[in-house]
Design a protein that fits this description.
Blueprint (H helix, E strand, L loop, with lengths): L4 E4 L20 E17 L11 E19 L8 E6 L10 H13 L2 E5 L3 H4 L16 H4 L1 H4 L10 H13 L14 E7 L1 H13 L8 E5 L17 E3 L2 E3 L15 E6 H4 L15 E6 L7 H4 L37 H19 L33 H4 L3 E4 L17 E4 L2 H7 L3 H18 L4 H13 L6
Parallel strand pairs: 4-5, 4-6, 6-7, 7-10, 10-11
Antiparallel strand pairs: 1-2, 2-3, 3-5, 8-9, 12-13
Helix pairs in contact: 1-9, 12-13
Length: about 475
Amino acid sequence: MSDIWIKPAPKIGPTCLPPMKIPLKQQGYERREFFFGGTANAYIDTAPLSSSGEWSVAPSGDQARYASRLLVYRPIDPARFNGTVIVEWMNVSSGLDTPSEWIMLHTELMRQGYAHVAVSAQYAGVEGGPIPFPRVIPLSLAAKRINPLRYRSLSHPGDSFSYDIFRQAAELVRRPEEINPLNTLKPRHVIATGQSQSAHRLITFINAFGKSTDLFDGYFIHSRVGAVPELSGGAAAPLSELSHCQVMAPDVVRIREDLGRPVFNLQTETDLFPLHALASRQEDSTHFRLWEVAGSAHADLYVSNIGLRDAGNDVTAAAVTTTTRSNPLLKKCRDNISTAPQHHFVAKAAIRALNNWIVDGIAPSSQPRLEINATGDGLATDKHGNALGGVRSPYMDAPIARMSGLNSTPRDNQCLCFLFGSTDMLDAATLRFLYPTHNDYVTEVTAATCNAVNAGTLLAEDAALVIAAAREANIPPQ
């Protein structure tokens, strides 16, 4: 570790990150940015990469110097720290380093006292471009493009080195030397996480390096995708992308069964079909759990908008609404996008379940898979058009809308609507038939909420918001 260095980022201009409006100090948290660097290796396979995930790799001989950054969210009072650090591989699909998991999970992380470290592991987040959807977001929002003065000393040699960069970031968290990015906090457990494109890369990290590193006690794989052309193909990210030594993953990739550490995979409806992850679906085992969330989409209004300002007590975060636009920067979609609150609520239950699994050895419950239709090309649905099976929620079991991971807006590189699913409110006559009175609706939601809490897929703290939103809803329409 002697080659790895870390230092506080210079206080020159703004930090490059999404515009979150959460009052961290009121929550007892602080955010700090650090630069770190060293020498990273690229890797090649020593045997063909198999679908089982039991990969064997070795350094390719290519080494490169790098300088990147960490964003650290930590409790101000050390007594609040629960001992677990979440290390997130930041998502670069938008051309900006985005801590998607922090946005999705922050209310749970802060109320439970986690520390969270978001890592700039990839080239696009530091240097800028290429990005998967250039006609949606034509300008790079990478750190060095947004604030060249603050980030001019950073240097990323390319994504073939990203796995070693991520590993070395975790090394600084797990075994700090002169500078501890967590201040005085000492981690007892470390969880690696990544969402979407970052999950794609984290699967490669687990299968290639998970057996040889003791840095992580568990892994949270959120919305993994399959063989998607925009992500260089394969059901996991390429091991190497050097022009003279490209090592691609196969079209079906499972998490290796011999890892010996807990892996929790949370999936949405969009992930299974539009993003082709169904082929890599695997059964629960001693160290693996898969939850597929009925009615959820790969991206939704929470992660793109509401989550940027949610302090944990916002009833809006539990309400079903309709809008065709996820945020002002993106185009309107043909369908109302997914506003499904169950996605972020189940994600929070999942991260708590994973931490309990690691700390106390209590494995999360196994949940039913989403049901596939008779032709095998989509999900089986009920009379309202909602998916059958999967992780259930009050939004599915006391429905007021059809919630789907599909969006009918034509898919091209000008529009991200295919990631955002859809929400269609049930018509007034159907709602009056289902819930003759408002009290009937609240009663149904309350019963379904209790079922979800008992199943461990909804946290009691979030259940109160779900019921509060039901009480405020105009159901049946007046």
